[in-house]
Write a sequence for this structure.
């Protein structure tokens, strides 16, 4: 008995089947491209993101990360949104008279990320300050943090609460 030969779909026809196959293949490729791209938006890539409760004030915390600009144009972190924080500010650490360290909002209210460079938000430097944590942070917890860039738009990063930098 000869093997059965497939002669196309009698209802849709070969042409329609080819169109659907192409559509599914293109859709799958786009999905994989987006899924495998990491946490990046318009050239900004976030690396080593972590957060902690401020050692001196348990009701406050901070987030740290590296912002890598892979594009050919400067961008800037304009603001950060975190539901668990009453207020979120972009801060810098500076030296006070007498050798003490202080913190203040960054000048101009934004953190510039030059083209082709990485800006490090770190303990003792630039950082994201979370004032009025509600509820409190727990080590190991992941907090969704929305970064809003001037050119790159919004990016949500899950930031793990830790006792020290990764």
């Amino acid at each position: 008995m000869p093997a059965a030969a497939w002669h196309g779909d009698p209802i849709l026809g070969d042409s329609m089947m080819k169109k659907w196959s192409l559509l599914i293949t293109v859709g799958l490729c786009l999905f994989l491209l987006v899924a495998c791209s990491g946490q990046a938006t318009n050239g900004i890539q976030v690396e080593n993101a972590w957060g902690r409760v401020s050692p001196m004030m348990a009701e406050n915390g901070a987030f740290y990360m590296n912002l890598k600009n892979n594009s050919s144009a400067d961008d800037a972190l304009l603001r950060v949104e975190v539901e668990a924080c009453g207020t979120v500010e972009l801060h810098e650490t500076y030296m006070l008279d007498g050798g003490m360290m202080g913190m203040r909002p960054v000048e101009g209210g934004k953190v510039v990320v030059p083209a082709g460079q990485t800006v490090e938000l770190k303990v003792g430097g630039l950082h994201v300050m979370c004032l009025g944590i509600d509820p409190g942070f727990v080590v190991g917890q992941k907090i969704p943090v929305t970064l809003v860039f001037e050119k790159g738009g919004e990016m949500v990063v899950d930031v793990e609460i830790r006792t020290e930098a990764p």
User: Anything to note?
Assistant: The chain has two domains: 12-39, 42-161. The chain is about 15% helix and 45% strand. The radius of gyration is 24 Å.
